Amino acid sequence: MSSLEIRNLHVSTGDKEIVKGVSLTINSGEVHAIMGPNGAGKSSMAKAIAGHPDYLITEGEVLLDAKSVLEMESDERARAGIFLAFQYPSEVPGVSIANFLRAAIQARMAEGEEIDAAAYYKRLYEKMDLLKIDRKFTSRSVNEGFSGGEKKRSEILQMAMLEPRFALMDETDSGLDIDALKIVAEGVNHLRGPNLGVLLITHYQRLLNYIVPDHVHVMIDGRLVKSGDRTLALELESKGYGWVKKEFANA
Amino acid sequence: MSDTPETDTLEATMDNPVSGIDQSSGNFKYDMTYDFDAGTGLNERTVDYISSVKKEARWLHDFRQSALKVFESKPLPTHWATKDLENINFDKIRYYLSQGQKPKRTWAEVPDDIKATFERLGIPEQERKFLAGVEAQFDSEAAYSNIKEAVAKQGVIFMNSTEGLREHPEIFRKFFGKVIPTGDNKFSALNSAVFSGGSFIYVPPGVKVSHPLQAYFRINAESFGQFERTLIIADEGAELTYMEGCTAPKFSTATLHSAVVELVALKGAKIQYITVQNWSSNVFNLVTKRGLAHEDAEIKWIDCNIGSRLTMKYPGVVLKGRKSRGEVISIALANDGQHQDTGAKMVHAADETTSTVVSKSISVGQGRATYRGVVHIPRHLKGCKNNTECDALLINTNSRTDTYPAITVRGDHHKVQHEASVSKVSAEQIFYMQQRGLTEGQAMSLSVNGFINDLARQFPMEYSVELKRLIDLEMEGSVG
Predict the structure, then answer these.
(1) pTM of the entire predicted model
(2) Which residue of A150, A211, B89, B454 sits 20 to 30 Å from the alpha carbon of B104, by its own alpha carbon?
(3) Domains annotated on chain A, with CATH
């Protein structure tokens, strides 16, 4: 059982403070959803936790199993088990998904240890079958010329192969039609389990119909202003963010 | 084929100029005795000396001497090329150097970083010693003879150019210096004056050589020459693939390397010439390579340049016969302090000729990659096609790339396409890859390998695997 603890996190990009003191603990097996309007700081927080160089943590802590990750490079954090499913995944021209994932897995192995290619492909194909991804997909260059749905499915496939302890899913539903959304959600549900903690960042409650969260948090202007269970998401859908904002302003 | 096998072995040993490791980085002394040594500097006596050591015919001796005059009369091409050429001190260079004895260095004296490089590249133990100058010659005469024997059954002549001149002067002389005349440029003239080593191949009409002929150290030590001269003739309908070089770093104390390679593809013949070179960073590598394609013939250059201080190399094809085809595929990687000035030359001289140039360069750190392309299609021709594509990848913000395409097309019955692109490995892309667990260096390597992937696939498997490892090594130092 692992935990990812975010303590009084402040994040700036450029001179601007975006995240203004967020505290949140995610345990293995839990799915937390963070909802909030555009510009609330949801994505910035995820990127900062993953170690993006443009998002500076000015105050606070991020602890993976009680150990700070802030001194770690982004790749060390990744190998330690933090996975970020990107809202806009980058293209890596000329590098096939199969080779990319292979390199990523190889990077997790001890020096001198070599990946077993046959076993790797067997596992890759199993995961692809599970996620209903065509096998031809593996020979395509990472994200190059992918549709929105393909990009998101590629992120889920990578997550399935890399088996992180915590997955930060940044607007995984954006740009997806309902069919693609269902497929992606089904993939995440497959991966859900006692060894994985998920932070699901979303703008819309729609995704939460398919990935049912254990906890829902509302983020406004860089702060978590309300937390609750699944019913909070439904409430937000019917009432909009306005009432939370008002409630927050009055508090 | 040869009635004096002892001489072959001796020749190969003598002509091996890979005399040591870059001493500036190794910082150790290296004593060696040369049986034949032309001393430093270049004059008529040096040329006399080389010619007499090689027991050459009169015509060749005269050919060398007149080439020397051309070399001396030609200025350095600094009006278009880099001024760095002025740093070559022609008086301090040894133009002919033979090892008559085994070098006395031991493996223990070879610097650790060089050993580590061999390790990383997976170079077999025996070859490492040769490359590091611990052994004068890699003992693979057996493999070489096997290949020679196998192809000899098909009537193929495959030997070093010294042998070729001696044993097949009637073929050699007919084609030698015809594709690249002595006066083509200053360095082709230099090579014509002092050349030694290189390969001579003749493939008879209709013969298709199934296995690539290789002339790198694994087979023929002499091909490591400073001033190699290679001549390949594919007679009508013949086909062959030739490979030179290897991805292992070549540590050389000789700072000037200037080869000339001439290819002749007669009617309907096909020649594919593959080069992978990785010079140490003190080397000026100034090479002239050109092929002559007769009717319906095809010449393809696949060229990969890594390392060196300055490489200038523009493989070319003269499309002399109707419907002939020429192709250049080139990969260049310029690391800190290195300048890769490469490109292609396509001269259309007949109707319905086709040329293709695909060039990819990578500049790392303060490395500089230059592309120069010449495509010439004169007015009186019909139905010629050229497609040029050059892509540059910049790794760091201080990396540099320049492109000088010179496409002269006259007349209006031709199809010409030119595409160029410059891209950078973006910070976002590196973050994405790091987020999957790759270190920054690994992410860079993978991006670079991805960039050249479609070209690397055209290399033989063994070469492309080595190439990938080599890029990994080159990229390691580029971040941080």
Answers:
(1) 0.81
(2) B89
(3) 3-250 (3.40.50.300)
